[in-house]
Specification:
globular; alpha+beta; Alpha-Beta Plaits; six-stranded mixed β-sheet; four-stranded antiparallel β-sheet; about 475 residues; 18 strands; 2 domains; Aminopeptidase
Amino acid sequence: MENIKSYVEENKERFINELVDLLKIPSISADTAYNQDVLNTADAVKESLEKAGCDKVEICETPGYPIVYAEKMIDENLPTVLVYGHYDVQPADPIELWDSPPFEPVIKKTELHPEGAIFARGACDDKGQMYMHVKAFEYMIQNDNLPCNVKFMIEGEEEIGSPSLGWFIERNQEKLKNDVILISDTGMISNEQPSITTGLRGLSYVEVEVTGPNRDLHSGLYGGAVANPINILNKMIASLHDENNHITIPGFYDKVIELSDEERAEMAKAPFSLENYKNALDIKDVYGETSYTTNERNSIRPTLDVNGMWGGYIGEGAKTVIPSKAFAKISMRLVPDQDPEEITQLFMDHFIKIAPEAVTVKVTPHHGGKAYVTPIDNIGYMAANKAYTQSFGVSAIPQRSGGSIPIVALFEEVLKSKSILMGFGLDSDAIHSPNEHYGVFNYLKGIETIPLFYKYYTELFKVEN
Protein backbone atom coordinates (compact mmCIF):
# COMPACT_ATOMS: atom_id res chain seq x y z
CA MET A 1 0.00 0.00 0.00
CA GLU A 2 2.98 2.25 -0.62
CA ASN A 3 1.10 4.23 -3.26
CA ILE A 4 -1.91 5.17 -1.13
CA LYS A 5 -0.71 8.74 -0.59
CA SER A 6 -0.18 9.35 -4.28
CA TYR A 7 -3.55 7.80 -5.13
CA VAL A 8 -5.32 10.09 -2.68
CA GLU A 9 -3.45 13.13 -4.00
CA GLU A 10 -4.23 12.25 -7.63
CA ASN A 11 -7.92 11.83 -6.88
CA LYS A 12 -8.26 14.57 -4.27
CA GLU A 13 -10.56 16.86 -6.23
CA ARG A 14 -12.82 14.01 -7.31
CA PHE A 15 -13.08 12.69 -3.75
CA ILE A 16 -14.06 16.13 -2.48
CA ASN A 17 -16.55 16.77 -5.28
CA GLU A 18 -18.25 13.42 -4.73
CA LEU A 19 -18.67 14.15 -1.04
CA VAL A 20 -19.99 17.63 -1.79
CA ASP A 21 -22.65 16.12 -4.07
CA LEU A 22 -23.70 13.74 -1.29
CA LEU A 23 -23.88 16.59 1.23
CA LYS A 24 -26.25 18.55 -1.00
CA ILE A 25 -29.03 16.04 -0.34
CA PRO A 26 -30.91 16.99 2.88
CA SER A 27 -31.33 13.47 4.29
CA ILE A 28 -32.97 14.53 7.57
CA SER A 29 -34.48 11.37 9.03
CA ALA A 30 -36.22 13.18 11.89
CA ASP A 31 -38.51 15.17 9.55
CA THR A 32 -40.93 13.35 7.26
CA ALA A 33 -40.88 16.33 4.91
CA TYR A 34 -37.47 15.04 3.78
CA ASN A 35 -38.60 11.46 3.21
CA GLN A 36 -37.73 11.41 -0.49
CA ASP A 37 -34.36 13.07 0.15
CA VAL A 38 -33.43 10.31 2.59
CA LEU A 39 -34.40 7.68 0.02
CA ASN A 40 -32.44 9.51 -2.67
CA THR A 41 -29.37 9.47 -0.43
CA ALA A 42 -29.68 5.71 0.00
CA ASP A 43 -29.70 5.40 -3.80
CA ALA A 44 -26.60 7.61 -4.04
CA VAL A 45 -24.74 5.51 -1.46
CA LYS A 46 -25.70 2.32 -3.33
CA GLU A 47 -24.38 3.76 -6.59
CA SER A 48 -21.10 4.82 -4.97
CA LEU A 49 -20.51 1.31 -3.57
CA GLU A 50 -21.23 -0.24 -6.95
CA LYS A 51 -18.75 2.09 -8.65
CA ALA A 52 -16.15 1.41 -5.95
CA GLY A 53 -16.14 -2.29 -6.80
CA CYS A 54 -18.49 -4.23 -4.54
CA ASP A 55 -19.77 -7.47 -6.08
CA LYS A 56 -23.15 -7.31 -4.40
CA VAL A 57 -24.99 -4.10 -3.51
CA GLU A 58 -28.61 -3.88 -2.42
CA ILE A 59 -31.05 -1.56 -0.73
CA CYS A 60 -32.67 -3.53 2.07
CA GLU A 61 -36.13 -2.47 3.16
CA THR A 62 -36.87 -2.09 6.86
CA PRO A 63 -39.90 -0.84 8.84
CA GLY A 64 -38.30 2.59 8.48
CA TYR A 65 -35.67 3.94 6.10
CA PRO A 66 -33.68 1.39 4.08
CA ILE A 67 -30.24 0.01 4.84
CA VAL A 68 -27.65 -0.08 2.07
CA TYR A 69 -25.81 -3.40 2.16
CA ALA A 70 -22.77 -4.29 0.04
CA GLU A 71 -20.01 -6.86 0.06
CA LYS A 72 -16.80 -8.01 -1.57
CA MET A 73 -15.98 -11.57 -0.56
CA ILE A 74 -12.61 -12.74 -1.85
CA ASP A 75 -11.78 -15.78 0.32
CA GLU A 76 -13.84 -17.44 3.06
CA ASN A 77 -10.62 -18.29 4.90
CA LEU A 78 -9.76 -14.63 5.29
CA PRO A 79 -11.29 -12.34 7.95
CA THR A 80 -14.35 -10.23 7.20
CA VAL A 81 -14.57 -6.55 8.15
CA LEU A 82 -18.08 -5.09 8.46
CA VAL A 83 -18.13 -1.33 7.89
CA TYR A 84 -21.00 0.51 9.58
CA GLY A 85 -22.02 4.10 8.91
CA HIS A 86 -25.12 6.21 8.40
CA TYR A 87 -26.34 8.43 5.60
CA ASP A 88 -28.99 10.40 7.51
CA VAL A 89 -28.23 13.76 9.15
CA GLN A 90 -29.50 15.96 11.94
CA PRO A 91 -31.97 18.78 11.26
CA ALA A 92 -30.16 22.00 10.37
CA ASP A 93 -32.07 24.25 12.78
CA PRO A 94 -31.56 27.01 13.72
CA ILE A 95 -30.95 27.92 10.09
CA GLU A 96 -30.31 31.60 10.86
CA LEU A 97 -27.13 30.73 12.76
CA TRP A 98 -25.46 29.16 9.73
CA ASP A 99 -22.93 31.32 7.90
CA SER A 100 -23.82 29.54 4.67
CA PRO A 101 -26.82 27.36 3.71
CA PRO A 102 -26.48 23.93 5.42
CA PHE A 103 -27.10 21.95 2.23
CA GLU A 104 -25.02 24.12 -0.08
CA PRO A 105 -21.52 22.94 0.89
CA VAL A 106 -18.67 25.44 0.86
CA ILE A 107 -14.98 24.98 1.56
CA LYS A 108 -13.37 27.58 3.80
CA LYS A 109 -10.01 27.79 5.54
CA THR A 110 -10.00 28.00 9.33
CA GLU A 111 -7.34 28.21 12.01
CA LEU A 112 -7.59 24.47 12.68
CA HIS A 113 -8.08 23.62 9.00
CA PRO A 114 -5.57 25.63 6.94
CA GLU A 115 -6.17 23.26 4.01
CA GLY A 116 -9.87 24.07 4.22
CA ALA A 117 -12.95 22.51 5.74
CA ILE A 118 -16.23 21.49 4.11
CA PHE A 119 -19.11 23.34 5.79
CA ALA A 120 -22.43 21.50 5.48
CA ARG A 121 -24.86 19.52 7.59
CA GLY A 122 -23.57 15.94 7.76
CA ALA A 123 -20.05 16.88 6.65
CA CYS A 124 -18.51 15.14 9.66
CA ASP A 125 -21.51 13.31 11.11
CA ASP A 126 -21.51 11.04 9.27
CA LYS A 127 -21.45 11.42 5.51
CA GLY A 128 -17.83 12.58 5.35
CA GLN A 129 -16.58 9.86 7.66
CA MET A 130 -18.75 7.17 6.07
CA TYR A 131 -17.65 8.11 2.57
CA MET A 132 -13.97 7.78 3.53
CA HIS A 133 -14.58 4.04 3.74
CA VAL A 134 -16.10 3.91 0.27
CA LYS A 135 -13.09 5.69 -1.21
CA ALA A 136 -10.59 3.63 0.82
CA PHE A 137 -12.27 0.50 -0.52
CA GLU A 138 -12.14 1.91 -4.04
CA TYR A 139 -8.39 2.42 -3.65
CA MET A 140 -7.83 -1.18 -2.51
CA ILE A 141 -9.88 -2.55 -5.43
CA GLN A 142 -8.24 -0.32 -8.02
CA ASN A 143 -4.77 -1.30 -6.84
CA ASP A 144 -5.56 -4.99 -6.30
CA ASN A 145 -4.53 -4.99 -2.64
CA LEU A 146 -7.73 -5.71 -0.73
CA PRO A 147 -6.37 -8.13 1.90
CA CYS A 148 -9.64 -9.51 3.28
CA ASN A 149 -13.41 -9.67 2.86
CA VAL A 150 -15.48 -6.51 3.30
CA LYS A 151 -19.15 -5.88 4.02
CA PHE A 152 -20.89 -2.51 4.25
CA MET A 153 -24.01 -1.71 6.27
CA ILE A 154 -25.01 1.93 5.89
CA GLU A 155 -28.27 2.95 7.59
CA GLY A 156 -30.58 5.94 7.38
CA GLU A 157 -31.95 6.24 10.91
CA GLU A 158 -28.98 6.74 13.24
CA GLU A 159 -29.95 10.30 14.06
CA ILE A 160 -33.33 9.12 15.34
CA GLY A 161 -31.98 6.23 17.42
CA SER A 162 -31.71 3.49 14.76
CA PRO A 163 -35.21 2.09 15.42
CA SER A 164 -35.03 -0.37 12.49
CA LEU A 165 -31.43 -1.51 12.84
CA GLY A 166 -32.09 -4.07 15.57
CA TRP A 167 -34.93 -5.49 13.47
CA PHE A 168 -32.57 -5.76 10.49
CA ILE A 169 -29.59 -7.39 12.17
CA GLU A 170 -31.76 -9.91 14.03
CA ARG A 171 -33.09 -11.10 10.65
CA ASN A 172 -29.76 -10.97 8.80
CA GLN A 173 -27.21 -12.43 11.19
CA GLU A 174 -25.72 -14.77 8.59
CA LYS A 175 -25.49 -12.04 5.98
CA LEU A 176 -23.79 -9.72 8.47
CA LYS A 177 -21.43 -12.35 9.89
CA ASN A 178 -18.02 -10.77 10.46
CA ASP A 179 -14.84 -10.80 12.51
CA VAL A 180 -14.73 -7.12 13.39
CA ILE A 181 -16.89 -4.04 12.86
CA LEU A 182 -15.23 -0.82 11.70
CA ILE A 183 -16.93 2.51 12.40
CA SER A 184 -15.94 6.12 11.76
CA ASP A 185 -18.51 8.20 13.62
CA THR A 186 -16.28 9.60 16.36
CA GLY A 187 -13.36 11.99 16.62
CA MET A 188 -9.71 12.25 17.56
CA ILE A 189 -7.71 14.54 19.81
CA SER A 190 -6.15 16.66 17.07
CA ASN A 191 -4.73 16.51 13.56
CA GLU A 192 -1.32 15.94 15.11
CA GLN A 193 -2.37 13.43 17.78
CA PRO A 194 -4.75 10.67 16.69
CA SER A 195 -6.81 8.76 19.22
CA ILE A 196 -9.01 5.68 19.20
CA THR A 197 -12.34 5.78 20.98
CA THR A 198 -12.44 2.84 23.39
CA GLY A 199 -15.65 3.72 25.19
CA LEU A 200 -19.03 5.30 24.47
CA ARG A 201 -21.65 6.45 26.92
CA GLY A 202 -25.13 5.02 26.79
CA LEU A 203 -28.30 7.06 26.48
CA SER A 204 -31.76 7.46 27.95
CA TYR A 205 -33.89 10.11 26.24
CA VAL A 206 -37.29 11.25 27.51
CA GLU A 207 -39.86 13.96 26.90
CA VAL A 208 -41.84 15.39 29.81
CA GLU A 209 -45.17 17.20 29.78
CA VAL A 210 -46.54 19.17 32.73
CA THR A 211 -50.21 20.15 32.63
CA GLY A 212 -51.93 22.66 34.92
CA PRO A 213 -55.29 24.28 34.09
CA ASN A 214 -57.39 22.96 31.23
CA ARG A 215 -56.64 26.01 29.09
CA ASP A 216 -54.32 29.02 28.93
CA LEU A 217 -55.42 31.55 31.55
CA HIS A 218 -55.20 35.34 31.95
CA SER A 219 -52.13 35.90 34.15
CA GLY A 220 -53.77 38.84 35.89
CA LEU A 221 -57.04 37.12 36.76
CA TYR A 222 -55.49 33.78 37.71
CA GLY A 223 -51.86 34.56 38.51
CA GLY A 224 -50.89 33.42 42.01
CA ALA A 225 -54.03 31.28 42.37
CA VAL A 226 -53.22 28.33 40.09
CA ALA A 227 -50.00 26.52 39.25
CA ASN A 228 -48.03 27.80 36.27
CA PRO A 229 -46.73 24.65 34.48
CA ILE A 230 -43.61 26.45 33.24
CA ASN A 231 -42.70 27.59 36.77
CA ILE A 232 -43.34 24.10 38.12
CA LEU A 233 -41.37 22.41 35.36
CA ASN A 234 -38.41 24.70 36.00
CA LYS A 235 -38.44 23.87 39.72
CA MET A 236 -38.71 20.15 39.05
CA ILE A 237 -35.82 20.18 36.59
CA ALA A 238 -33.67 22.31 38.90
CA SER A 239 -34.16 19.74 41.65
CA LEU A 240 -32.61 16.98 39.53
CA HIS A 241 -29.10 18.20 40.49
CA ASP A 242 -27.77 19.06 43.94
CA GLU A 243 -25.25 21.75 44.86
CA ASN A 244 -22.39 19.50 43.65
CA ASN A 245 -24.09 18.86 40.30
CA HIS A 246 -24.76 15.31 41.42
CA ILE A 247 -27.96 13.81 39.96
CA THR A 248 -30.60 13.38 42.67
CA ILE A 249 -32.70 10.58 41.17
CA PRO A 250 -32.73 7.71 43.75
CA GLY A 251 -30.78 4.71 42.47
CA PHE A 252 -29.27 6.59 39.51
CA TYR A 253 -25.66 5.86 40.53
CA ASP A 254 -26.19 2.36 41.94
CA LYS A 255 -24.43 0.63 39.03
CA VAL A 256 -21.91 3.32 38.13
CA ILE A 257 -18.38 1.90 38.23
CA GLU A 258 -15.81 4.21 39.77
CA LEU A 259 -12.53 4.15 37.87
CA SER A 260 -9.38 3.50 39.85
CA ASP A 261 -6.82 6.23 40.48
CA GLU A 262 -4.52 4.43 38.06
CA GLU A 263 -7.13 4.47 35.28
CA ARG A 264 -7.88 8.12 35.87
CA ALA A 265 -4.15 8.88 35.76
CA GLU A 266 -3.90 7.17 32.36
CA MET A 267 -6.80 9.24 31.06
CA ALA A 268 -5.10 12.40 32.25
CA LYS A 269 -2.14 11.74 29.93
CA ALA A 270 -4.18 12.80 26.91
CA PRO A 271 -3.21 16.31 25.74
CA PHE A 272 -5.76 18.82 26.97
CA SER A 273 -5.72 22.58 27.50
CA LEU A 274 -8.50 23.88 29.72
CA GLU A 275 -7.87 27.44 28.52
CA ASN A 276 -8.14 26.44 24.87
CA TYR A 277 -11.29 24.50 25.68
CA LYS A 278 -12.89 27.55 27.31
CA ASN A 279 -11.73 29.88 24.56
CA ALA A 280 -13.15 27.63 21.85
CA LEU A 281 -16.56 27.75 23.54
CA ASP A 282 -16.30 31.41 24.55
CA ILE A 283 -16.98 30.64 28.23
CA LYS A 284 -15.29 32.01 31.34
CA ASP A 285 -15.31 28.74 33.25
CA VAL A 286 -16.34 25.12 33.00
CA TYR A 287 -19.18 23.64 35.03
CA GLY A 288 -19.97 20.15 36.21
CA GLU A 289 -19.87 17.45 38.83
CA THR A 290 -17.58 18.24 41.77
CA SER A 291 -14.32 16.27 42.14
CA TYR A 292 -14.02 15.33 38.47
CA THR A 293 -12.00 16.89 35.67
CA THR A 294 -13.55 18.21 32.48
CA ASN A 295 -12.45 15.16 30.48
CA GLU A 296 -13.83 12.84 33.16
CA ARG A 297 -17.13 14.67 33.34
CA ASN A 298 -17.74 14.27 29.62
CA SER A 299 -16.68 10.64 29.29
CA ILE A 300 -16.71 8.41 32.40
CA ARG A 301 -19.49 10.10 34.40
CA PRO A 302 -23.23 9.95 33.72
CA THR A 303 -25.11 13.17 33.01
CA LEU A 304 -28.60 14.64 32.82
CA ASP A 305 -29.25 17.56 30.50
CA VAL A 306 -32.26 19.48 29.27
CA ASN A 307 -32.16 19.58 25.47
CA GLY A 308 -35.14 21.85 24.99
CA MET A 309 -38.03 23.50 26.86
CA TRP A 310 -41.16 25.18 25.60
CA GLY A 311 -44.61 26.36 26.61
CA GLY A 312 -46.76 29.46 26.74
CA TYR A 313 -46.43 32.40 24.40
CA ILE A 314 -43.09 33.04 22.69
CA GLY A 315 -44.21 35.13 19.73
CA GLU A 316 -43.54 38.80 19.13
CA GLY A 317 -44.93 41.25 21.64
CA ALA A 318 -46.75 40.40 24.86
CA LYS A 319 -49.47 37.92 25.66
CA THR A 320 -50.08 37.64 29.39
CA VAL A 321 -51.04 34.03 29.93
CA ILE A 322 -50.53 31.24 32.38
CA PRO A 323 -50.00 28.34 29.96
CA SER A 324 -51.92 25.12 30.26
CA LYS A 325 -48.86 23.03 29.45
CA ALA A 326 -45.08 23.06 29.55
CA PHE A 327 -42.69 20.60 27.91
CA ALA A 328 -39.04 19.56 28.02
CA LYS A 329 -36.78 17.05 26.31
CA ILE A 330 -34.17 15.51 28.60
CA SER A 331 -31.22 13.25 27.78
CA MET A 332 -29.20 11.19 30.23
CA ARG A 333 -25.78 9.95 29.14
CA LEU A 334 -24.95 6.68 30.82
CA VAL A 335 -21.78 4.78 31.67
CA PRO A 336 -21.04 1.02 31.56
CA ASP A 337 -23.41 -1.17 33.62
CA GLN A 338 -26.17 1.45 33.68
CA ASP A 339 -29.17 -0.05 31.90
CA PRO A 340 -31.05 2.55 29.82
CA GLU A 341 -34.47 0.99 30.44
CA GLU A 342 -33.83 0.87 34.18
CA ILE A 343 -32.61 4.47 34.24
CA THR A 344 -35.62 5.61 32.22
CA GLN A 345 -37.94 3.95 34.73
CA LEU A 346 -36.07 5.50 37.67
CA PHE A 347 -36.45 8.92 36.03
CA MET A 348 -40.17 8.41 35.37
CA ASP A 349 -40.90 7.26 38.91
CA HIS A 350 -38.95 10.12 40.46
CA PHE A 351 -40.23 12.89 38.18
CA ILE A 352 -43.85 11.95 38.71
CA LYS A 353 -43.29 11.64 42.46
CA ILE A 354 -41.82 15.15 42.88
CA ALA A 355 -44.66 16.86 41.00
CA PRO A 356 -47.04 18.89 43.20
CA GLU A 357 -50.72 17.92 43.12
CA ALA A 358 -51.51 21.17 41.32
CA VAL A 359 -50.22 19.67 38.05
CA THR A 360 -50.19 16.35 36.25
CA VAL A 361 -47.04 14.92 34.66
CA LYS A 362 -46.55 12.70 31.65
CA VAL A 363 -43.16 11.17 30.78
CA THR A 364 -42.67 9.70 27.29
CA PRO A 365 -39.53 7.57 26.76
CA HIS A 366 -37.75 7.92 23.43
CA HIS A 367 -34.69 6.08 22.16
CA GLY A 368 -31.79 4.88 24.28
CA GLY A 369 -28.86 2.50 24.32
CA LYS A 370 -26.19 0.89 26.45
CA ALA A 371 -22.67 2.17 27.00
CA TYR A 372 -19.80 0.35 25.31
CA VAL A 373 -16.15 -0.34 26.11
CA THR A 374 -13.65 -2.14 23.88
CA PRO A 375 -10.39 -3.54 25.29
CA ILE A 376 -7.11 -2.26 23.90
CA ASP A 377 -5.57 -5.74 23.77
CA ASN A 378 -7.70 -7.10 20.93
CA ILE A 379 -6.33 -7.29 17.40
CA GLY A 380 -8.84 -4.79 16.05
CA TYR A 381 -7.55 -2.08 18.36
CA MET A 382 -3.94 -3.05 17.70
CA ALA A 383 -4.49 -2.91 13.92
CA ALA A 384 -6.09 0.52 14.20
CA ASN A 385 -3.19 1.78 16.29
CA LYS A 386 -0.66 0.47 13.76
CA ALA A 387 -2.59 2.19 10.97
CA TYR A 388 -2.71 5.54 12.77
CA THR A 389 0.96 5.25 13.75
CA GLN A 390 2.05 4.73 10.15
CA SER A 391 -0.26 7.40 8.75
CA PHE A 392 0.29 10.12 11.37
CA GLY A 393 3.78 9.22 12.56
CA VAL A 394 2.69 8.92 16.21
CA SER A 395 0.88 6.25 18.18
CA ALA A 396 -2.82 6.74 18.89
CA ILE A 397 -4.07 7.40 22.41
CA PRO A 398 -7.01 5.35 23.72
CA GLN A 399 -9.82 7.69 24.72
CA ARG A 400 -13.35 7.34 26.03
CA SER A 401 -15.99 9.45 24.33
CA GLY A 402 -18.88 11.28 25.92
CA GLY A 403 -21.12 10.58 22.94
CA SER A 404 -23.40 7.63 22.33
CA ILE A 405 -23.74 5.20 19.45
CA PRO A 406 -26.39 2.89 20.93
CA ILE A 407 -26.13 0.28 18.21
CA VAL A 408 -22.49 -0.57 19.06
CA ALA A 409 -23.56 -2.49 22.17
CA LEU A 410 -26.29 -4.12 20.10
CA PHE A 411 -23.73 -5.28 17.53
CA GLU A 412 -21.77 -7.11 20.20
CA GLU A 413 -24.90 -8.60 21.72
CA VAL A 414 -26.36 -9.94 18.45
CA LEU A 415 -23.42 -10.29 16.05
CA LYS A 416 -20.86 -11.17 18.77
CA SER A 417 -18.34 -8.75 17.27
CA LYS A 418 -16.17 -6.02 18.71
CA SER A 419 -16.42 -2.58 17.13
CA ILE A 420 -13.35 -0.48 16.39
CA LEU A 421 -14.07 3.25 16.41
CA MET A 422 -11.65 4.96 14.02
CA GLY A 423 -12.86 8.54 14.03
CA PHE A 424 -11.18 11.42 12.20
CA GLY A 425 -13.34 14.36 13.27
CA LEU A 426 -12.41 17.06 15.78
CA ASP A 427 -14.40 18.37 18.74
CA SER A 428 -14.53 21.74 16.99
CA ASP A 429 -16.35 20.37 13.93
CA ALA A 430 -19.72 21.50 15.34
CA ILE A 431 -21.63 18.30 14.67
CA HIS A 432 -25.36 18.68 15.45
CA SER A 433 -24.78 22.46 15.51
CA PRO A 434 -24.90 25.31 13.01
CA ASN A 435 -21.83 25.51 10.77
CA GLU A 436 -20.94 21.83 11.02
CA HIS A 437 -17.78 21.16 9.05
CA TYR A 438 -15.15 18.53 8.30
CA GLY A 439 -11.52 19.23 7.47
CA VAL A 440 -10.27 18.37 4.00
CA PHE A 441 -7.11 17.08 5.72
CA ASN A 442 -9.19 14.81 7.97
CA TYR A 443 -11.28 13.46 5.13
CA LEU A 444 -8.29 12.62 2.95
CA LYS A 445 -6.22 11.35 5.89
CA GLY A 446 -9.03 8.95 6.71
CA ILE A 447 -8.98 7.56 3.18
CA GLU A 448 -5.22 7.16 3.52
CA THR A 449 -5.37 5.46 6.93
CA ILE A 450 -8.27 3.03 6.57
CA PRO A 451 -6.58 0.67 4.06
CA LEU A 452 -3.73 0.28 6.56
CA PHE A 453 -6.23 -1.01 9.10
CA TYR A 454 -7.25 -3.76 6.68
CA LYS A 455 -3.61 -4.66 6.07
CA TYR A 456 -2.65 -4.90 9.73
CA TYR A 457 -5.89 -6.51 10.85
CA THR A 458 -5.48 -9.30 8.29
CA GLU A 459 -1.88 -9.88 9.35
CA LEU A 460 -2.79 -10.04 13.05
CA PHE A 461 -5.80 -12.24 12.33
CA LYS A 462 -3.61 -14.79 10.55
CA VAL A 463 -1.19 -14.88 13.47
CA GLU A 464 -3.99 -15.29 16.00
CA ASN A 465 -5.74 -17.97 13.98
